[in-house]
Amino acid sequence: MSITTSTVRRDLTRAELRALVAELAAQPAAWAHLVNHDPTARTYEQLRRDEHVAVWLICWMDDHDTGFHDHDVSCGALAVADGEVVEERLAIGRPPLRRPVCTGGVIDFAASDIHRVAHAGDRPAVTIHAYSPPLWRMGAYETLPSGELRRHSISYAEELRPLGLGVEILDGPGV
Known about the structure:
Elements: H1 14-25, E1 43-49, E2 54-60, E3 69-70, E4 75-82, E5 84-89, E6 97-102, E7 106-109, E8 115-120, E9 125-132, E10 137-143, E11 149-155, E12 158-159, E13 170-171
Antiparallel strand pairs: 1-2, 2-9, 3-10, 4-7, 4-9, 5-6, 5-8, 10-11, 12-13
């Protein structure tokens, strides 16, 4: 039985989340009708939510960027179903660790990981994300002019965007 059709009654591990998003990304008939690219903002559709896992489809175009964030108590995984995104992990005393993720690629992250995801490549992208337990809160990070890092606790219903001078968090789900 696959992870997408099983009746798991517990939070999923990172390995199980990787398997779930990879399996869903390989089944475009289940979600392709929901793809909607908007150049002004990421678009998203929740594919599943229960007490143990939440699954989202997210569409990306040029300049779409989550900004640095964490997932509070939820671990997660994302699979690129089409196109390319880039993940950066925050590093102290050096540039962020940068990892491009192309069609078919899968990454996972712990609840405590601070990362950002942004569109890359020359065409729109589609990603499938899973979080366990389901997201309720996230931390969005702002770098102050002094260089200090500040965490803002936000709801999963608010769209993640880079924070900085004159940039606000907009409505929509995180990544």
